[in-house]
Amino acid sequence: IADDVESVRTLVSKFVQRAGHDVVLAGDGIVACAALSSQPRIAVVITDYRMPGKGGLEVACLSKTLKPDRPVVLMSAEICQTTDHVDIFLRKPLEITLKRISEILVQFDTDPAQ
Fold first, then answer.
1. pTM of the predicted model, to two decimals?
2. The predicted structure's pLDDT at residue 89
3. Are the CB atoms for 112 and 20 separated by under 8 Å?
4. Helices H / strands E in the chain, number of each
5. N-terminal to C-terminal alpha carbon distance within the chain
6. pLDDT tens for residues 51-88?
7. Alpha-carbon distance 111 to 78, whole Å?
8. How far, in Å, CA of 81 to CA of 98, rounded?
């Protein structure tokens, strides 16, 4: 989960953890890209669009380059066109629920044990 706003990272991570998944947190795009490069077992990327260093589209592009089948969820308050690198777009402010996170994870058949 990559977002430069700590409260958003915390909120999203709680929902993902409640769905039974481990979480790797990044406060900016540079840290997110480093995590993707060093931790190939990351199953899903959830990233903010606008962050310091590297933005969410750069994170998404690297994720798909490293692992093309890895789902990418892009969050943004801005109107943003999705690209080939983004699977799901979530508009901020987030109206996020455990049910929606579970639906996203199930949609991509991610196994918490992976």
1. 0.81
2. 84
3. yes
4. 4, 3
5. 16
6. 999 999 999 999 999 999 999 999 888 766 667 889 88
7. 31
8. 25
